[in-house]
Amino acid sequence: MPPTLTSAEKSLLTKAINAVRDKQNSGLRVGKYLQARSGQDSELLFVGLSNTQINSGRTAGAKIDVVEYDGPYGKGWDFVVILTRAGKTWRYCHSEGPELSRAHDWKEITDGS
Q: How far is CA 34 from the centre of its chain?
C-alpha cells in the first residue's frame, strides 16, 4: 500500500512541482539534484519553497531530485521524491517532456529495484 501523505505534504509536493515547471519553462535550469535533506536550502528556496516547507520535507524524511534528460525523443525533466515511512522506502516520479513513460505513482523500493 503506497504511503499516505498529509494534506500539507500533498500541497508541498504540488507547489514544488509547479515551481520547478515554472523555472524550467522560463529557461532557468533548476539543476540536476535538489536534495531536501542535504542542506542545499538555497536551491530549494530558488524554486520557491519556504524555509518552513523545506523543514517539513526534512521532517517527513523526503529527498527531492530534479533530473533533466536528453533522450532519443528530446529533452525533459523528472521530479523524483524518495520517501521513507514505517520502515519502507517509496519513490514517486512526475515527468515532463517527450518521455512520459518515465513517470510513475508511488512504488516501493526494494534492494532489487
A: 8
